[in-house]
Amino acid sequence: MTTMDKAPAPPARGRAQISDRGRAERRLGLILAAPAVVVMLLVTAYPLLNALWLSLFSYRLTAPDDREFVWFANYATALSDGLFWSDVFTTFLITAITVGVELVIGFGLALVMHRAVFGRRTVRTAILVPYGFVTVISAFAWFFAFDLASGFVNPWFGLGDHAWFSGRWSSLFVIILSEIWKTTPFVSLLLLAGLAQVPGDLGEAATVDGATAWQRLWRVTVPNMKAAIMVAVLFRALDAWRIFDNIFIMTRGQEGTESLSFLTYRQGIERTSIGMGNAVGVLLFLSVLVIAAVFIKGFRVDLSRVRGDR
Amino acid sequence: MVERARKRYGGRGRVARGAAALALLASGLAACGGEGGTPTLRWYINPDSGGQAKLAASCTKASGGKYRIETSVLPNDATQQREQLVRRLAAKDSGLDIMSLDPVFVAEAANAGFLRPFTDAERPQFTQGVFPPAVENSTWEGKLYGAPFWANTQLLWYRKSVARKAGVDPSAADFTWDKMIDAAVRTGSTVGVQGNRYEGYMVWVNALIASAGGKIISAAERGDEAAIDIDSPAGRQAATIIAKLARSKAAGPTIATDDEEAARSLLNGARGGFMVNWGYIWRAENGDAKDGVIDKSIPGDLGWAPYPKVAAGQDSKPPFGGIELGIGAYGKHKDHAVEAVRCITSTPNMKFYMLDSGNPAARPEIFDDPDVVKEFPMAPLIRDSINRAAPRPITPYYTDVSGAVQSRWHPPASVDPSSTPRRSGEFVRQVLRDEALL
Q1: What is this model's ipTM?
Q2: What pTM did the predictor assign?
């Protein structure tokens, strides 16, 4: 029992111990990855630097002659604006709740997919169906379900003429619900990959030692798939942080349901305020970087370990 | 499994891809072929029931082979139509010859140099015998940038049975918002409005302020230094009405998200009473009754009256809308485009479009036409309403002004006459100076 407390430690990989073969493999890897890195730099670095440059201007698409270099004034305006922080809070709320709930439901679904004895393919397909929907379509479906004129939710639950999209919390509830419905399959898919990595004999050994199912889950399965869980959380957190489609379809950002992406859209596309839009966009990008850094450095997520070739 | 699938579909997939590539190539060639022969004018239209496409075809025919007009449909709502047009025009799209523009966006596009102004020689044929607000909305700094194509306004639509029960006459000279809200509360019915946070809400706010004798902004030619007048007695009167309605039983349950169609379904529902809405209602209600979507008795029970007054004895100023035709500044065939616009906005074509789409024409004379009067019994009222309609602020920063007002006046139930007009005025100023996010 006590031997099962910890996952088997991966073999130590020190810089000093690298063999000639390892070095050659590493060089080959770099060469193979180089073209992709160059292309990535071309398609991401240029737009990023351009956005950074444009964010330093007071510049409107519809008044090209009034372009004026204002240094970091746009950032100062955005960061001192209550709307920005209220949108950060909304985005954080949506991210925290959806990722948390999806992790729990997704883990359950992954177990079902993993353990299904018969109809395995049917079960997996059924669970993955929501993920196949275009987000806009799923947003419309949920919107119409809760909408007062066309919806079935109010009659089903006897809610009379409760207007879901006329209040902040009820709107956010529907937005979060649709997001969970749509992306839980993604989480469960990543967790299924993690479950498949857990060697079966570990569980069997634990059973022999007299561990209950609950103990096997918490002491054998979960520690052994920690990497997969962290990757699933990271991917979903980054995705949820950039939420846009559901909000656009359901509330257009009214009633305090605006996310950071939506704020960027409003400044950049709707107001055609290129400077302000790019400033908010750059802030959004930086916040994504922070989240990724916290996960990778803080929780020591090793992206290469998802493949299972420790 | 994967291998099998690839084998099974591989061959057919390749054929399909080849065919698709060929089709793309062919259509590309066809487009190139068109360049050499008849010039093709691309007309970006707002979605309608097909009337603009019919006009494009008939004007192509009338040109005798000089040009061909093809239509491209823009998104559904006015805000997104503008977004797409602005993006294309900012990129100097030479394939944008004619565009159907919401009147509020003419000033912005004109100020940015996106539109080809009409010359003084061309001007009279587009402005003579046309509703004054339509001309006013199409003009920026003394030049005409849009050709009025159709004009729109809102009326008060009501259920005659409800008005009878409440003992009110909505056409009476002293029928105000206050009386209407009280009548609806008394009879357990509703007043349908556009309270969603979108352009339609701005239409309502602007009409209330204008009807109270005020303005949202003035001296728009000063751009972001325009005078902001929303914090005024008129602004407070408008706020009082919105707050009273939104907090009363006469408000629909979804007043904070209602658009034109939601207001219409409220009027058709069990608690339907009164509603302010555009002229398309008549067509839509009759069509729905014929198709069995709504009760057959509703069109017979549907009454219309002038837009309600803010104060008795002070004429209301109904909203103004419609479509103006602009000519892209970067198109390759601008002279042909002027000719095409002349054809589209001719009196017979305007009449055709009014009968086809149900949208009111931009020339008052058409409203006396027997065909039109037969089809639209309220035509004289629509004509008079357009004549005294109040445009929304004419400014190149319209999107900011409208967005800022919507932001501070929404939701309707949160409006407070003592603070909302003042706070929205301050916010408009900040947004115009890029000192606040919207």
Answers
A1: 0.80
A2: 0.84
